[in-house]
Amino acid sequence: MGDAVTLPRLTVIGTGYLGLTHAVCMADLGHEVLAMDVDERKIAMAAGGETPFFEPGLAPLLRKNVEAGRLRFTTSFAEAGAFGEVHFLCVGTPQADGGTADLSYLHAAADALAPHLAAPCLIVGKSTVPVGTARAVLSRIRAAAPAGSGVDLAWNPEFLREGYAVQDSLAPDRVVFGVTSETAACLLRAVYAKPLAAGIPALVMDLETAELVKVSANAFLATKISFINAMAEMCEAVGADVIRLAEALGHDERIGRRFLNPGLGFGGGCLPKDIRAFRVSAASLGVTSVANLLGQVDAINMNRRARAAVMTREAVGGSLAGKRIAVLGVAFKPNTDDIRDSPSLDLCARLAAEGAEVSVHDPVAMPNAARSRPDLRYTASVFEAAERADAVLHLTEWADYRAIDPAALATVVARRTLIDARCALDVDLWRAAGWSVRVLGRP
Fold first, then answer.
1. Which of 235, 270, 348, 423 is catalytic?
2. Is 90 annotated in the active site?
3. The pairing of beta strand 86-89 with beta strand 121-125
4. Is residue 102 in some structural domain?
5. 171 and 263 assigned to the same domain
6. CA distances (Å), 149 to each of 92, 104, 143, 146, 204, in order?
7. Is the pTM higher than 0.90?
8. Most C-beta atoms within 10 A of its C-beta, which of 93, 208, 364, 428?
9. Is 4 within a domain?
10. Distance between CA 432 and CA 434 in Å, rounded?
C-alpha cells in the first residue's frame, strides 16, 4: 500500500447556507475543517450539531463530522488564519439597491482575515460575484497580509441546488478552478481529490472566466424557465397546452426537457439576484445584448405572479375582498425552508393587499414565512388551511400535495376551486372529484 495522502487543512469563512454545507461536506471528504463566522449564535448551533436552516441530509452529516473531530467552529479570524492552508470565502453577496451585488460582506471577510495570514496560503472564493471581483480581492488581501505575495487566490464557484446541496457538494457534476498559477490548481486538485478520483471533471481556467461560469449558468437556467413561461402565456391566449408543448420541445436533444417546467416562476436567494446583478454588470460594460436579454427574463418571471393573482381574482368572481384563499406551499421550491424572493409568498401578499383572507400550509417553511409575513394565517394541515376556502392555490410543488385526496378536501371547502400554479397536480383526478381547476398555461 502507498503512503496516505495528506490533505490540506481548510477553513471556511461564513456559515450560512453555502458555507455550512461546504464545511460539512469537505469534512466528510476527509479534511480537517475549521468553520468561522462572526455570528456567535450560528457557531453555537453548528458546534452543537444543529443547522439553522432545513436541508435534507445535512444535519446528520454535521453531527457525524463534529463527533469525528474533523469539523470545528470558531468566531476568531486569528484562529482561522493560523489554522488553514486553504481558506474558502463563502459569505453572502445579496442584492443591493439598483440590482447590483453587495460585496460588503466579502470585502469585510477578506479585510478581517488578511492580517492573520502570516504563512503562504490559498484563498478560494466561492461566492457569486461580478466579473473582476477576484483580482480586486487578491490585491486587497496581499496588501494587508504579512505573507504578502505568498498569498494566492482562486475562484471556485458553487453550483448547489437547494434540496440537493449535500449531493451536489459530495458528487458535483463538475468543479471549476479559476486560478493564476499552477500551484493553486494543484492545491485545489488535492482539496477535491476524492470527487476527482471518482471521475468528476475539473475545468481549469482564468479568474474572469470562472467568475462568469456561475452567473452565466444561472442566466441560462433563468432564460430557459422564462422562455417556457412566455410560451405558457401564448398557450393561454390560444387555448393550447403548455405541458404538451414542453414535452414536445424536450424531445429535441438541442433543448432537453429538464427545467423546461412552466408555472409560477423562479425565486430563491440566488437566481433572481444573480441575473439582476449580471444585468447591471453587463450594462456597465456596455454589453447591452446581455443586459436587455436578462431584463426580459426577469420581467417574464415576475409577470407570472401577477398572472396568478389575476387568475385567482377571476376564479372567485372578480373581487378578492373577503374571500378565503388557501395556499399550499410558501417555500420558493420544495425540499427547502427558504422563502427568499418566494413567488408564492409574493402572491400571498398581492392577494392579501386586495382584501383576501389567506391561510397557508407548508411542510417546513412556515416559521420563516411567519417572520416575514405575520399578517397571514398559518395552519398545521392542508385541511385546516382549506377550511371554508373559496379557492385552493397550489404554489409549491411538494410531493405531499400530489398525494392529497381531492374528494376528501372537497368536504371542507366553500367552493371546489383549484388553481395549480405549478402545473404539477393530476388535473383529471381533481376534476373527477368535482373541482373547477385552472392551470397556468393549460386549458
1. 270
2. no
3. parallel
4. yes
5. no
6. 26, 23, 9, 9, 22
7. yes
8. 93
9. no
10. 5
